[in-house]
């Protein structure tokens, strides 16, 4: 197999990663005008509804794309196209059942759920979000299906379409209901409902695009499926296999999200014992959940996108018994993630204050605390990204339960460290960031240890970790110098952020090539890689 084919999966990962960056970036920008429309109280209703919706989304269909892509890729590798077709229809049935049940539960019990969280005004928004659960479940099957065939393009485009439609209509409908209900007691409740309507319309747009994509290749798959005469799977076997594949992924995802719920509980209860007022606790939690986690989760979501695209490729290599190729993909994926996450961590650390000043310029004290949180927690960008990719590697190699076990162990460590830091060391909200570092370090050590022991695998160190770290450090020096030099001439928040960012990108990739962290063949694997090579040639870095 050619080196180009072996590395081609990085292109798919990069495409999905770029789409994830765009979607996340739009999501960050979207919260600024939404906050101005709804205010703190309205955002409380909106956020509460969205949190409840997110829990049901995880339980009903969040793991479907990963599970479907893994199962489909394995059958594609074996040329079992009839089984591929049956897996798709089986996935649709599961999506209809679980997505439908979740939607009905959310709609019927919206008042009860809102009351349980002490936000009765969120009930309207919850009811509006109910159909979205059903639509997202169907989208999950289609996205997993395309990824199983080795193409992340439909997923990437559908994500972008979904997000753009959601953001545009959310703001339009939110503003509409604010005007329509002006002077009414439930004005903000209806405005929050309008904001959540955008999610439903976005899901419809994304689903329509995916359905169109499937229809365009359905004939080809049906023609191929007629040639398969042996080893045809029954639907009972398919449903059993899907459930057994979904459950570990679901448990892993649930465990990861439980940590946020635990954090909320720990902060509220322990800080109350320590004498903090409800207002102080709410304010600190808001800074952590919005100003800190927004910038930490953005780069991590990119790594997660790469992780999702890695699993089908890994599963396919294992299915055909090509362990050498599987090990090669492990090395490439880990290296690719570190190449991306290391400069992100350095950039967030140095530009933390300019970022917060640009997007959240309404509170100096809040921005100061947010800056300190980002300084301490920027390393979790690297750690969480590596955890995401190693979890995907373990699942792709067939060890679906190991990420769950490791995450549970990490969660126990997380809780112990968080409580200890608050009770003994009086670190207040900073305890959560320290605990997140402890959690990711624990899971990462356990993941790598399992891979090393069971596959006699050793990660290449110099080009994976050493060179990117040196390049990121040099980049950091250039960012600092550029930022403080610009402050002499301008106080524009946009200029103070954007110019150092451009300098960072150029310096990092130039140094990466100069020090041997990337070569011309590897650059070609990136989308539009030939343009990057032209840039390097312009700088006379490539002959």
Explain what the structure shows.
The chain is mostly helical. The chain contains 19 helices and no strands. 85% of the residues lie in helices and 0% in strands. Helix 2 (64-77) runs parallel beside helix 9, helix 10 runs parallel beside helix 16 (462-489) and helix 11 packs antiparallel against helix 17 (493-514). The longest helix is centred in the N-terminal third of the chain and has 58 residues, at 3-60.
Question: Which keywords apply here?
Answer:
globular, about 550 residues, mainly alpha, 3 domains, 19 helices
Q: How big is the Rg?
A: 24 Å
Largest sheet: none
Count the beta strands.
0
Q: Which oligomeric state applies?
A: single chain
Percent of residues in beta strands? under 5%
Assign a percent range to the helix content.
Answer: over 70%
Q: What's the layout of helices and strands?
A:
Elements: H1 3-60, H2 64-77, H3 81-108, H4 110-116, H5 123-148, H6 153-180, H7 187-225, H8 235-273, H9 278-319, H10 323-350, H11 352-359, H12 364-377, H13 379-396, H14 402-423, H15 430-455, H16 462-489, H17 493-514, H18 520-523, H19 529-538
Helix pairs in contact: 1-3, 1-5, 1-6, 1-7, 1-9, 2-3, 2-5, 2-8, 2-9, 3-5, 3-7, 3-8, 4-5, 5-7, 6-7, 8-9, 8-14, 9-10, 9-12, 9-13, 10-13, 10-16, 11-12, 11-17, 13-15, 14-15, 16-17
């Amino acid at each position: 197999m050619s080196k180009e084919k072996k590395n081609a999966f990085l292109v798919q990962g990069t495409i999905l990663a770029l789409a994830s960056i765009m979607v996340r970036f739009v999501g960050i920008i979207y919260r600024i005008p939404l906050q101005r429309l709804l205010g703190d109280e309205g955002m409380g209703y909106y956020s509460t509804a969205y949190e409840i919706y997110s829990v049901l989304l995880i339980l009903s269909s969040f793991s479907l794309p990963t599970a479907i892509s893994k199962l489909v890729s394995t059958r594609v590798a074996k040329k079992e196209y009839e089984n591929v077709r049956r897996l798709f229809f089986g996935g649709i049935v599961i999506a209809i059942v679980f997505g439908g049940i979740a939607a009905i539960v959310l709609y019927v019990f919206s008042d009860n759920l809102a009351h349980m969280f002490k936000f009765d005004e969120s009930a309207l928004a919850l009811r509006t979000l109910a159909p979205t659960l059903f639509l997202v479940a169907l989208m999950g099957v289609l996205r997993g299906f395309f990824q199983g065939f080795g193409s992340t393009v439909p997923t990437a485009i559908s994500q972008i379409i979904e997000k753009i439609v959601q953001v545009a209509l959310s703001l339009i409908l939110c503003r509409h209901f604010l005007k329509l209900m002006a002077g009414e007691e439930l004005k903000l409740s209806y405005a929050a409902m309008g904001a959540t309507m955008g999610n439903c319309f976005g899901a419809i747009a994304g689903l329509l695009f995916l359905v169109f994509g499937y229809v365009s290749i359905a004939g080809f798959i049906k023609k191929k499926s007629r040639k398969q005469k042996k080893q045809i799977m029954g639907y009972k076997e398919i449903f059993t296999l899907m459930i057994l594949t979904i459950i570990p992924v679901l448990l892993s995802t649930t465990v990861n999200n439980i940590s946020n719920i635990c954090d909320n509980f720990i902060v509220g209860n322990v800080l109350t014992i320590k004498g903090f007022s409800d207002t102080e606790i709410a304010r600190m939690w808001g800074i952590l959940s919005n100003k800190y986690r927004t910038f930490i989760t953005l780069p991590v979501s990119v790594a997660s996108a790469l992780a999702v695209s890695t699993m089908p490729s890994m599963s396919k290599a294992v299915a055909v018994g090509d362990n050498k190729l599987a090990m090669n993909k492990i090395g490439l994926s880990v290296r690719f993630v570190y190449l991306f996450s290391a400069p992100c961590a350095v950039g967030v650390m140095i530009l933390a204050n300019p970022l917060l000043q640009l997007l959240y310029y309404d509170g100096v004290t809040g921005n100061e605390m947010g800056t300190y949180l980002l300084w301490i927690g920027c390393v979790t960008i690297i750690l969480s990204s590596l955890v995401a990719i190693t979890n995907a590697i373990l699942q792709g190699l067939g060890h679906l339960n190991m990420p769950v076990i490791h995450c549970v162990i990490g969660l126990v460590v997380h809780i112990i460290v968080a409580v200890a830091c608050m009770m003994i060391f009086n670190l207040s909200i900073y305890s959560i960031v320290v605990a997140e570092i402890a959690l990711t370090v624990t899971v990462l050590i356990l993941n790598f240890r399992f891979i090393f022991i069971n596959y006699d695998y050793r990660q290449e160190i110099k080009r994976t970790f050493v060179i990117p770290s040196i390049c990121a450090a040099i980049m950091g020096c250039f960012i600092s110098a550029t930022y403080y030099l610009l402050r002499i001439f301008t106080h524009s928040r946009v200029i103070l952020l954007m110019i150092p960012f451009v300098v960072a990108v150029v310096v990092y990739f130039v140094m990466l090539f100069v020090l041997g962290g990337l070569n011309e063949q590897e650059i070609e694997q990136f989308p539009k890689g030939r343009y990057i090579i032209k840039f390097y040639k312009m700088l006379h870095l490539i002959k």
